[in-house]
Amino acid sequence: MPRKKIESLQDIKSATTEVETEVKATRKSVKDKQGRSYATGKRKDAVARVWIKPGKGVITINDKSMDEYFARPVLKMVINQPFVITNRENEFDVVCTVKGGGLSGQAGAIKHGISKALNEYEPELRSVLKQAGFLTRDDRVVERKKYGKAKARRSYQFSKR
Fold this sequence. Notes:
- The protein is an alpha+beta fold and about 160 residues long.
- The chain has helices at about 10-25, 65-70, 75-85, 105-120, 125-130, and strands at about 35-45, 45-55, 60, 65, 90-100.
- It has a 5-stranded mixed sheet with strand order 1-2-5-3-4.
- Helix 3 packs parallel to helix 4 (about 105-120).
- The longest helix is centred in the last third of the chain and has 19 residues, at about 105-120.
């Protein structure tokens, strides 16, 4: 694309619309032979491999139903957030395997994976998912324990006598 000299606000607006149309044209849906989209989600020490495909909204985690795997309703809500924010509830079946971390980290990893897979399946949902912060990897992890300390930063109790 040849560069134009920008002299007015109208030139800036037209240049940005040209760039936006180019970006939208480059984003394509990525599906495998079975019509699924795949993504990897991560949170704390948990890693989730997620496949989504059109269906009735069945979510399977490590060959168990979501209700069986996650007992707490808060964790189920976290997993469903990408579908709720994009108005796609009960439209996709999700199959995922998750390893590492605790239940909260695993739920966050599945949410991240579902968001990325939705982005792969329907690229036009990217702006909604991005604004909600679901495509960004939350890189906060537990700080390691240091020697001479009870925990990462906590010192042992001081005794004067």
